[in-house]
Predict the 3D structure of the following.
Amino acid sequence: LSLDDFPDWVVTVTFYTVVHVIERLRAAAGDGDSADHESRTQYVQQLHPAIHTAYSVLRNASHLARYGSNADFFRHFQREDIADRIVATFLVAIEEYAATQLENRSR
């Protein structure tokens, strides 16, 4: 999946990667599966506020990428934003946070 050719899909795949990370946190805590995106957002907000902003940005960006126009999407995100903020900052922050949470849980 090329950022140059499909930046909208890079954002969408990044968000759904994070969805799986959050569901893994839920499973490790014995909290079951999220019913939908809204319940997952509430879960993150209530139990993992350290990543709530990053998660919300990814969710909103993905929604815009999937359901908005290309013009709307590119008004908000340039390719550099996707590489530097969406993937390198927000995705990495959530993955690192989850890894720490899961490691602490296994002790």
About this structure: The radius of gyration is 14 Å. The helical segments are 7-29, 37-47, 52-67, 70-76, 79-105. The longest helix spans residues 79-105.
